[in-house]
Design a protein that fits this description.
alpha+beta; two-stranded antiparallel ribbon; 4 helices; single chain; 131 residues; 4 strands
Length: 131
């Protein structure tokens, strides 16, 4: 950090330092996003255990690979059970013989993971920036 810079090269030196800082910030943001996604997946898995071991074990976080202009995106997914996940999350009708017999209430297990991620992304980013 104590590099000597001549006044003629001051603008280039400042630009280079900012570029280095941006790279470190993007790495920290990516790490925080992926860590938060893993933690959110664990929250969703814990809530989904009573739906069956196969369903709960297929819930996983897909990490963000790079930071875009609008940030990075990591996903928590139920693997091949995406149709079941939607029905469990939002509820569905009970139909027999073409007649609607009732309605099954939704069980918001992915919503809990989303809420967890919203609350913990900033603390995780602060932790990554300090390290």
């Amino acid at each position: 950090m104590s590099d000597k810079v001549k006044p003629d090269n001051l603008a280039a030196a400042i630009a280079q330092r900012l570029k280095d800082f941006q790279g470190a910030t993007e790495e920290a943001l990516l790490a925080a996003i992926n860590e938060t996604a893993e933690q959110a997946a664990d929250v969703v898995k814990a809530k989904a255990q009573h739906f069956g071991a196969n369903y709960a074990n297929d819930i996983k976080a897909i990490p963000a690979r790079k930071i875009q202009r609008n940030g990075g995106t990591a996903y928590v997914t139920a693997g091949d059970h995406y149709r079941v996940a939607h029905l469990l999350e939002h509820g569905h009708a009970i139909v027999r013989g073409g007649r609607k017999l009732g309605q099954v209430k939704g069980y918001e297990h992915f919503k809990d993971g989303e809420d967890y991620a919203e609350q913990n992304i900033v603390p995780n980013l602060q932790k990554e920036m300090r390290s």
